[in-house]
Amino acid sequence: MQFHLDGYRPGDPSVKEAHPAAQDPEAGLPETADVLIVGCGPAGLVLAAQLAAFPGIRTAVVDRKDGPLQVGQADGVACRTVEMFEAFGLAEQLKQEAYQVNEVTFWRPDPTDRSAIVRTGRIQDVEEGISDMPHLIVNQARMLDFLREHMARSAARIAPHYGLRVSAVEITGGAGAAEGPDGPGEYPVAVTLEHPGGTSVVRAKYVVGCDGARSAVRTAIGRRLEGDALNQTWGVLDVLVDTDFPDIRLKSVVQSEAGALLIIPREGGYLVRLYIELDAERYGDLLRERAVTPEVLAAAANRILRPYRVEVKDVGWWAVYEVGQRLCAKFDDVPDGETADRLPRVFIAGDACHTHSAKAGQGMNVSMADAFNLGWKLAGVLTGTAAPELLHTYSAERQQVAQDLIDFDRDFASKMAAGSGTSAAASGDGEEQFADYFRAQGRYTAGLSVRYEPSMITGGGEHQDLAKGFPIGMRFHSAPVVRLADARPVQLGHAARADGAWRLYLFADRVGPQAADGPFRRLCDHLASAASPLARFTPAGAEPDAVLDVRAILQQPHRTLEPTALPAVLRPRKGRFALVDHEKAFCPDPQHTDIFDLRGIDWDRGCMVLVRPDQYVADIFPLDATAQLNDFLDGVLRAAD
């Protein structure tokens, strides 16, 4: 964290000084907003947290509930999501409170007594080296608390408005034109909200529906969740238990003659979540009559766990749900075939556009990733630094991710159910397959398999060989380095915040900054020149790294280099006192594998790695390919006035 740039200010540095346009938490609902977010779930609050980095953007958040979520719902936090929380400065807080999933055990019928279960496998939960962040379990309500606190500490001082139900969304004049956000009809979306005191109307430039599977925003723009509901019903219990089951503090997959059970230890050391299969043959009447109770679920868990027992002492939360996989065809309001002539004004994210089961722990994570994909795009367009056409990429990218999730969830749910029940247990079907399947899908469940297709913000891979460990279209895989100025070991990928800036990582060639006329120096000189994309795209009065943040990774040991000898672009001057930012240059960490080896960087040629604001690799260029870099950015960013 960097602070005190414009003068010393006592107190908590995470609490930013309020911007002149900051919201008054006590004020009522505004009449207009640049972005109106409907829904205070994971997607809605991640989007609000990202927009909180832009106090000049007026963001309003509404929710039909009377107040913040207290208990229940999702709890699995994938490695990629923890990486994202680190960009908000929240990962350490999250890790401190959460349960960390380290290993998974698998239980199947005992060959000598098929009515009892035995442990058949035990594996590491997350493959070594795929992320420096762990897989965590924590109450969704606490994650939302962290995001709201982040919003409240931001210069924008964003606070949700509760008790407001969307009754209408109307897109008026100028909404479909490709003139950008400030053309005809500056606030073209009118949202009518009902509350105990009557109705209110908020006019917005953009509306994002993060309002769940029964989304009013989705309905208003004519989108539908399409798909099917499998004949699989599950109960879920958050409970304190007395048990002799030996793996109660390990994530455990149990498949027995009596059904399937997923055990998820929860934060705090005592609480545990049980996902319990409710087959139609045994529980059909109770399900039809909505007569399932926590006692019914506890009895089902005991049948599945035989010869072990669980005695429920306290129920924190419980629910019954049917597994269903449904998906919207598009995640915005632009009809098919009209993207060349219309810009989206209304978006949907999270459960509003994709639904699935909870067992694989992906729903909340994918919902938050939707918002993290959209937030920087809205910010870029609203601040005038990005082309409005950028907004089309949200639906194009995230709809495919959601389709992949639906396919995975259907496969996961069927494989888990197929390994349970008397017929499967008697035949031994699935004895080892599910554990193997679980292991094979590890990168997916960690949130690390997403790869975006080539587009205006993702290159085609012409120079992928220069940095084989940074696949274009995939998340920028962090690695340990040492910051040159203060010799501090850091993770390169986590040095950047969720501030909407693009990152340009310069991986130096062998001679690096020491050769006055080498490719690295020539590139740095270009980036410091009037022809640089920094000069072209950075608005007047903005910090030099506000749009494109240049950082360098040098091959030499940090003790052999002088920070003051670095090129000027790596020592930018910032703030009202024009102070040098000393945190732009890094070297290999001698305590770990060299980053050039770890990520397959070409030692002789080096390269540029361009990373999007959502931490996905946009493209890779040779150090001398300044024209290619400029052309790529010209297709995304707008020249400053």
Explained architecture:
The protein is α+β, with helices and mostly antiparallel strands. The protein folds into 3 domains: 230 residues, FAD/NAD(P)-binding domain; 131 residues, D-Amino Acid Oxidase, subunit A, domain 2 (D-Amino Acid Oxidase, Chain A, domain 2, 2-Layer Sandwich); 171 residues, Phenol hydroxylase, C-terminal dimerisation domain (Glutaredoxin). It contains 16 helices and 27 strands. Strand 13 and strand 14 form a beta hairpin. Helix 1 packs parallel to helix 8, helix 2 packs across helix 3 and helix 8 runs antiparallel to helix 9.
- Strand percent estimate: 25-35%
**Assembly classification:** single chain
Shape: globular
- State the domain count: 3
Q: Mind telling me the C-alpha Rg? A: 26 Å
CATH homologous group name of the largest domain: FAD/NAD(P)-binding domain
Task: Tell me the name of the CATH class of the largest domain.
Answer: Alpha Beta
Strand order across the largest sheet: 6-5-13-14-15-12-16-18
Q: Which key terms come to mind for this protein?
A:
single chain, 641 residues, alpha+beta, FAD/NAD(P)-binding domain, D-Amino Acid Oxidase, Chain A, domain 2, Glutaredoxin
Q: Brief overview, please?
A:
By secondary structure, this protein is an alpha+beta fold.
Topology:
Layout: E1 32-38, H1 42-51, E2 59-63, E3 76-77, H2 79-87, H3 91-97, E4 99-101, E5 103-110, E6 113-124, E7 135-137, H4 140-153, E8 161-162, E9 165-171, E10 189-195, E11 198-209, H5 216-220, E12 226-243, E13 251-256, E14 259-265, E15 272-278, H6 280-288, H7 294-305, E16 310-327, E17 346-348, E18 354-355, H8 363-382, H9 392-418, H10 422-427, H11 433-440, H12 442-445, E19 480-483, E20 488-491, E21 502-507, H13 519-527, H14 533-537, E22 548-553, E23 573-574, E24 579-580, E25 585-588, H15 595-598, E26 607-611, E27 617-621, H16 626-634
Parallel strand pairs: 1-2, 1-11, 2-8, 5-13, 11-17, 21-22, 22-25
Antiparallel strand pairs: 3-7, 4-7, 5-6, 9-10, 10-11, 12-15, 12-16, 13-14, 14-15, 16-18, 19-20, 19-25, 21-26, 23-24, 26-27
Helix pairs in contact: 1-4, 1-8, 2-3, 8-9
